[in-house]
Specification:
The chain is of the alpha/beta class and about 190 residues long. About 30% of the residues lie in helices and about 25% in strands. It starts with 6 loop residues before the first helix and ends with a strand.
């Protein structure tokens, strides 16, 4: 069966643009990434949505103990697994599923969930509610997107349990914006 996103597996460079070092520094700072944490990357079906073959997941491997990369397309997962092996990243688990299956994946406590433009293809309110059940008390969500999607995204996040929202933007590559959302501190 062919899915709208299946073509991405054959073209990792299409989704393989490296994220800037500043993004990793931001995530390391906000989530105190010291190599002992667990991260989750969520993907979704859609022509231009989803992480491709685990671009965010693979970029997190040096900073966390383990990454769970979740995507609904087995071809994309196979390509991500191949890239992980090629790059020497043994600390990634590739799980077939989508954002609607977060609570059924039997994940351990997650410290950080990263989502690329796939967030646009998800039921954001439901995903954030489900993430509340798997994220550690000081855990949070980082959505990596383009500035034109910022207003709707920050609105959805601000209305969720992860209502402490911070945005950071970079000119390169192509106006990348990170929206980091955590639970308010008491």
């Amino acid at each position: 069966m062919t899915t709208p996103f299946a073509s991405a597996a054959a073209y990792p460079d299409r989704h393989g643009t490296p994220y800037p070092a500043q993004l990793h520094a931001l995530l390391a700072d906000r989530f105190v990434l010291d190599g002992s944490q667990t991260a989750l990357e969520l993907g979704a079906r859609g022509a231009d949505a989803g992480p491709g073959p685990g671009v965010l997941a693979l970029s997190l491997t040096p900073s966390v103990d383990h990454v769970y990369a979740v995507h609904p397309d087995p071809e994309v997962l196979a390509e991500g697994s191949r890239l992980a092996e090629e790059r020497g990243c043994p600390n990634v688990s590739w799980l077939e599923g989508d954002a609607s299956a977060i609570t059924r994946l039997c994940l351990p406590r997650i410290d950080l969930c990263v989502i690329g433009d796939a967030f646009d293809e998800m039921d954001g309110e439901r995903v954030l509610a489900d993430l509340d059940t798997v994220l550690a008390p000081r855990g949070g969500v980082a959505v990596i997107t383009s500035p034109d999607r910022l207003e709707d995204l920050t609105d959805v996040l601000a209305k969720s349990v992860f209502s402490r929202v911070e945005t950071t933007s970079w000119e390169q590559p192509a106006g990348l914006t990170a929206v980091v959302a955590t639970r308010p501190r008491l």
